[in-house]
From TrEMBL:
The lineage of its organism: Bacteria, Pseudomonadati, Pseudomonadota, Alphaproteobacteria, Hyphomicrobiales. Residues 22-319 form the Histidine-specific methyltransferase SAM-dependent domain. This is Methyltransferase. Keywords: Methyltransferase, Transferase. One of its GO terms (molecular function) is methyltransferase activity. It comes from the Bacteria. The keyword Transferase applies.
Length: 323
């Protein structure tokens, strides 16, 4: 066997044992092909997502940041000194700075994210900006159990889950995640959570399909990642990004639509796609305030306060465990 062939074989074996291999094979084998959205956030994907948050069409980030700036003093007033701030899916931790400015007496900030590069950059930047703050980053999925150093284990916990990431879960899964967070944040725990509100499609669709094509690049990057990490042979030119709104489910769906009939090779399997057939990559559910509150209460939380912007685009909720 030539050296090149051996190398290739080694590569395929590595790919086959990759933790994402089984998940990807499973998703592409379904009648509606799908890929899990955590795959978006490799280093390039995390950068592209940061770009999305600055797009004129993407109202959630700046709207939520303005709401947080207004609510921060009230949030701080309910935060006991020596609390731990736990952030789920912290990414760049930009919005966190708004809370950290208002919360000088935290024992620690514990960001959790699937992107090593985003965690490292955010921890370094926060270390410079808040030199006395203890930062304890965790690489992983926020559905994993929350493990803090023993010295912090008895501190009261405030969770922070901004960006309407909760909307990326189907309602039943969202309720399960909120229950899991209630357990992780413990008795006396509290959660500050950002939730995007239902609104007209003329605002919703451009937020997920911007004129500059950044969201399209972000969606397509998932295929580049599979080419690189699993040796797949996706031709990115033969797919286009599409955002669809389904009113009955109150959700935006992100798809990668095949421009032609083709076969994708991946880990020794061939996946046929018809022209116009799609791979579903993400959902983003939109709620009314009352709908979200009902979901949170189902998950064992009490809804204490809610803040919105003047245009009712976005909401930030303060949930606690009640008495
Ligand atoms: N939580 C964000 C949202 O639902 C995530 C997001 C924004 C996203 N734009 C995206 C996910 C585009 C996939 C593709 O708004």
């Amino acid at each position: 066997m030539s050296q090149i062939a051996e190398k290739k074989l080694g590569g395929v074996q590595d790919a086959a044992t990759s933790p994402i291999a089984q998940i990807v094979l499973d998703g592409l084998s379904r009648p509606q092909k799908s890929l899990p959205s955590f795959l978006f956030y490799d280093a390039r994907g995390s950068d592209l997502f940061e770009e999305i948050t600055r797009l004129p069409e993407y109202y959630p980030t700046r709207t939520e940041a303005a709401i947080l700036a207004e609510a921060a003093p009230a949030i701080a007033a309910h935060t006991p000194p020596g609390a731990v701030l736990v952030e789920y899916g912290s990414g760049s931790s930009r919005k966190t700075e708004i809370l950290l400015d208002a919360l000088p007496n935290l024992a620690a900030y514990a960001p959790i994210d699937v992107s090593q590069s985003a965690l490292a950059e955010a921890s370094a930047r926060l270390g410079r900006r808040f030199p006395t703050l203890r930062v304890i980053p965790t690489l992983g999925d926020f559905s994993a159990p929350l493990i803090l150093p023993a010295s912090l284990s008895r501190r009261p916990r405030t969770g922070f889950f901004p960006g309407s990431t909760i909307g990326n879960f189907a309602p039943a899964d969202a309720a399960a995640l909120l229950t899991h967070m209630a357990q992780g944040l413990g008795d006396g725990g509290r959660l500050i959570i950002g939730v995007d509100l239902l609104k007209d499609v003329s605002i919703l669709i451009p937020a997920y399909d911007d004129a500059a094509g950044v969201t399209a690049a972000f969606n397509l990057n998932i295929l580049a990642r599979l080419n690189r990490e699993l040796g797949a042979d996706f031709d990115l030119q033969s797919f286009r990004h599409e955002a669809r709104f389904y009113a009955a489910e109150s959700r935006i769906e992100m798809h990668l639509v095949s421009r032609r009939r083709q076969k994708i090779g991946l880990l020794g399997c061939l996946f046929p796609l018809e022209a116009g057939e799609s791979i579903h990559t993400e959902n983003s559910y939109k709620y009314s305030i009352a709908q979200f509150q009902a979901l949170a209460e189902l998950a064992g939380w009490s809804c204490r306060r809610v803040w919105t912007d003047d245009g009712d685009l976005f909401s930030v909720h303060e949930l606690d465990r009640g008495i």
